[in-house]
């Protein structure tokens, strides 16, 4: 059950992405946080930058509508068919499942016909504006990895703003403006993402590309994430090193693709004519059948798994980090300031693990950012390395792992992982030495004894 909650539907994501857009799958790196390697010193951990897989984030959001009673059907009302303003006998009735259009129908599985959709009340109070805010909240920072795609069954709105929040809905910034006439609606010149460049990629634009007329065949509005990636990674996103490099060094760029909430502000429904037809106001409303948001939990490159439990997303932090976004070092692992992992160098990045605090290991460790230097500090000096892990029981012969940096060995054993007999090292093993055979007592007992006597004298490394 626990496993089923993991955000790992990679196969589905492959299918979706290969169908949805022409880009190659380019986000498959950084899927391991650490591996074991063998060195002269024995088995040690090799750490890498890591992140959860990109997935369908609509499964983990909460949706809120404002005004809260804007959904059609309470009381029941009739509306006109799409494309035929004189056939106004369609019914919306919230109390009848077949005729209801609740918000969750924006996020259910699409692919059947006819589509299922959320629908607002009609514009019967014209000329009072018909405006609706749809807020999508994750209660967690997420990083967007693909276009946001909204499918309208009502014609695309004449005016709409997509907004984002980075602080759980306390403050909002516009992401993109959409209008049939940008100048008239927002006093902005119309632009397309294609008009932007590496230097202007963060510019907030108004686009007329997705608001053309009531009778248009296209129902879809995009917020173009991948077109923006392409300014750095090339049109087919092949040069991801360049994008990763930019994301690493430019916080503003990283933050641009990071959100905790999205808000779709529907400001004016599809009209498509100069005048609103006041005799048939039931032809004006909003209806959305699908919203796609692909992304991943932001874990600062310190986790590959993001767990959804109790309606909450949380990174399963590695590299001795902790917090919902792995945004700080664990207690007793503050030997150097916390730092996010780095995408560079490609393909493994740099883990920037948190290391034990000075007080827990004696001498202050030196920080070596060089990568991938297997013989660097973390391996060559086992007193300061993360050499063991209690979960994986690496210490042998009853040894116990002490702060991930050393094994506490029973008196008769030595070696990084307590793998050697002490007498072998001294060349004194023999029938009379009393050390030729494994010591009496169970490993667990010896382990307990070693832990109880765990002073510097017993730290056998
Ligand atoms: Ca639907």
From TrEMBL:
N-terminal signal peptide: 1-28
UniProt domain Laminin N-terminal: residue ranges: 46-296
Record bears the keyword Oxidoreductase: no
Gene expressing this chain: NTNG1
Disulfide bonding pattern of the chain: 409-418
Xref: InterPro entries: EGF, Laminin/Netrin_ECM, Laminin_N, LE_dom, LMN_ATRN_NET-like_EGF
Keywords: Disulfide bond, EGF-like domain, Glycoprotein, Laminin EGF-like domain, Repeat, Signal
Family matches, as Pfam families: EGF_LMN_ATRN (PF24973), Laminin_N (PF00055)
GO biological process annotation, one example: animal organ morphogenesis
Name of the protein: Netrin G1
Gene3D superfamilies named in the record: Galactose-binding domain-like, Laminin
The EGF-like domain, residue ranges: 384-419
Record-annotated membrane-spanning stretches: none
Domain of life: Eukaryota
